[in-house]
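Private note to self, pasted from the team thread so I don't lose it. C-alpha cells:
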C-alpha cells in the first residue's frame, strides 16, 4: 500500500480533498493499494474554473511548445516505467505483460503521438466560389478556409479497464489541440491517473491546464459533467451512464465524445481458418479478463464448422492459467471488483436458465484463496433472443450462436443494440470484405483482432458518438471555424 494519501490536482496545486479519502483495492489480493481523494462538488467546480482561466493562454501557445511538454511528459512516464506499471497492476488486476505493454507503454506512446499531433496543420483551404451580384453584395470570387479551433474546457471521464492508455488517449489529443482538461478517473483505479498528472506537472504544463479530481461515488463525476465552465465531455464506459451524461450535455449543448458498450460479433464463415479465429476470439477469455468493449464476445458461426470451433475454443480456454497477475505464466487475472465478479457470475447463471449449455467455466476459481476471479466461460446452444447474447457482460464469457448462410450471419451480427467493433473470419478475403461492409459497426476486423492505431475508432448505434484515435482524435477535440474573404 502506498503510504501517503493522494491529493487532488487543481489549478496546478496538490489539494487536500474536502470529503476525505477512500481505499483503492487490489482485485487480486483484496488489500488496499492506497488512499484516493474524495473531491467535493465545489472542488470539481473549482477545477473546471481553473481550466477555464488557463484556457485563454494555453489555447494561444505555440504548437511547438505544447508538443515539447507532451514529449517531456512521455519521457517522464517512461523514466518511472517500472513503478507506474506496478501501480497500474495493483489497481486494475492486470497481468504483468498487460500492465507493462498495454497500459503504461501505450499511455506514454499516446503522449508521443500527440506531441507530433500538436504540429499537424489545423487549416484546410476550401475551393474558391464565384458569386454573382445579388442581395448579398457585388459579384466576386470568395475564398474560404476551414480552421480547427480548440473546443475549450474538456472533462475526461475515464474507464477502469486501462488506467493509462484510456486517459492518455483523451488528455494528450485534447491538450495538443489547445484545450484544457478536468480529468475524472474511474473510482476503482484512479491513482495511476494522478501519476500521469505528476509527469505532466514536472514536464512544465501550466497551472490549470490539467486538473484531476476523483471520487468513489457519483458526485465528482456529475459535477465534472454539469459544471458551467465545461464545454465538452469525453467519456468511456457503459451505455447506461453515457446516456445520462448525454442528457446533461444536451441541456447546455456541450460537445460529446462517447465510447460506450459493445457486444462484438465474430462472424466465422465455413471457409475460415479456425485456429486463427480461436486465437482471436480466445482473447476475450484472457485480455483484461474480458473487461474490454472491443472483445469478440458474440460468436456467430456457420453450422458446417460449429462443432469444430466449439471444440477448439474449449481446448483454448482449458490451457489458460488463472491466478495471481504478478506470477509468471498467469494469463487470466481477476476482474475489477467483487461486485463485478458477482455480476458476471449472475450472467452465466442467467445463461443456464435461458437454456445455454456451459461448455467450460461457470465456476468460481480461487487460485490464491483471495481475489475477484472468474473462470473463462464458454456458452453454447445460444439463441439470438437470450439476454446473454444481447447484453454486454464485460467479463471472460463467450457466447456462441450458429447460422446457416451468409445472409443470416450478417442479419444476426446486425441484430444488436451495439455496434463498436465486429470481426469476420473467412479464407476468402473478398468474401470477408463483402460481409464486413454490411456490418453496422464502427470498426470491423478481417481475420484479425488487431487494430491500426491511426484508423478512426468509435461506435454505431448505442456504442457511442464520435470518433477518435490518430488524427481523428485531434478532430474530435476541436471545432471547425470557416473564414471567408473576397478575392
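Design output:
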Amino acid at each position: 500500500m502506498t503510504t501517503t494519501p493522494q491529493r487532488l490536482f487543481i489549478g496546478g496545486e496538490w489539494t487536500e480533498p474536502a470529503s476525505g479519502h477512500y481505499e483503492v483495492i487490489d482485485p487480486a489480493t483484496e488489500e488496499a493499494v492506497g488512499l484516493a481523494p474524495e473531491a467535493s462538488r465545489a472542488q470539481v467546480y473549482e477545477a473546471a474554473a481553473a481550466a477555464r482561466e488557463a484556457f485563454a493562454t494555453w489555447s494561444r501557445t505555440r504548437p511547438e511548445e505544447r508538443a515539447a511538454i507532451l514529449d517531456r511528459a512521455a519521457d517522464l512516464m517512461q523514466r518511472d516505467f517500472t513503478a507506474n506499471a506496478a501501480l497500474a497492476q495493483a489497481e486494475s488486476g492486470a497481468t504483468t505483460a498487460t500492465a507493462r505493454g498495454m497500459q503504461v507503454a501505450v499511455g506514454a506512446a499516446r503522449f508521443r503521438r500527440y506531441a507530433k499531433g500538436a504540429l499537424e496543420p489545423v487549416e484546410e483551404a476550401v475551393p474558391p466560389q464565384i458569386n454573382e451580384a445579388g442581395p448579398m453584395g457585388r459579384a466576386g470570387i470568395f475564398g474560404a478556409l476551414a480552421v480547427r479551433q480548440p473546443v475549450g474546457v474538456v472533462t475526461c471521464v475515464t474507464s477502469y479497464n486501462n488506467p493509462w492508455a484510456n486517459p492518455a488517449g483523451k488528455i494528450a489529443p485534447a491538450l495538443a489541440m489547445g484545450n484544457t482538461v478536468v480529468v475524472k478517473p474511474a473510482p476503482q483505479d484512479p491513482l495511476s491517473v494522478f501519476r500521469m498528472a505528476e509527469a505532466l506537472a514536472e514536464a512544465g504544463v501550466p497551472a490549470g491546464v490539467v486538473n484531476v479530481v476523483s471520487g468513489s461515488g457519483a458526485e465528482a463525476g456529475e459535477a465534472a459533467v454539469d459544471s458551467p465552465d465545461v464545454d465538452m465531455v469525453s467519456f468511456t464506459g457503459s451505455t447506461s451512464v453515457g446516456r445520462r451524461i448525454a442528457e446533461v450535455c444536451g441541456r447546455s449543448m456541450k460537445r460529446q465524445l462517447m465510447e460506450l458498450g459493445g457486444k462484438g460479433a465474430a462472424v466465422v464463415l465455413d471457409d475460415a481458418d479456425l485456429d486463427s479465429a480461436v486465437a482471436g476470439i480466445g482473447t476475450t477469455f484472457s485480455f483484461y479478463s474480458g473487461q474490454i468493449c472491443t472483445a469478440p464476445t458474440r460468436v456467430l458461426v456457420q453450422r458446417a464448422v460449429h462443432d469444430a470451433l466449439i471444440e477448439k475454443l474449449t481446448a483454448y480456454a482449458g490451457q489458460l492459467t488463472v491466478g495471481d497477475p504478478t506470477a509468471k505464466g498467469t494469463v487470466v487475472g481477476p476482474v475489477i471488483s467483487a461486485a463485478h465478479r458477482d455480476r458476471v457470475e449472475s450472467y452465466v447463471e442467467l445463461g443456464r436458465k435461458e437454456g445455454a449449455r456451459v461448455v467450460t467455466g461457470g465456476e468460481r476459481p480461487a487460485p490464491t484463496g483471495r481475489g475477484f476471479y472468474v473462470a473463462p466461460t464458454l456458452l453454447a446452444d445460444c439463441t439470438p433472443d437470450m439476454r446473454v447474447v444481447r447484453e454486454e457482460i464485460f467479463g471472460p464469457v463467450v457466447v456462441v450462436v450458429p447460422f446457416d448462410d451468409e445472409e443470416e450471419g450478417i442479419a444476426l451480427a446486425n441484430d444488436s443494440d451495439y455496434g463498436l467493433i465486429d470481426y469476420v473470419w473467412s479464407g476468402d478475403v473478398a468474401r470477408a470484405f463483402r460481409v464486413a461492409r454490411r456490418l453496422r459497426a464502427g470498426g470491423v476486423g478481417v481475420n484479425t483482432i488487431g487494430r491500426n492505431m491511426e484508423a478512426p475508432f468509435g461506435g454505431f448505434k448505442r456504442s457511442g458518438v464520435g470518433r477518435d484515435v490518430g488524427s481523428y482524435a485531434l478532430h474530435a477535440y476541436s471545432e471547425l471555424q470557416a473564414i471567408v474573404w473576397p478575392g
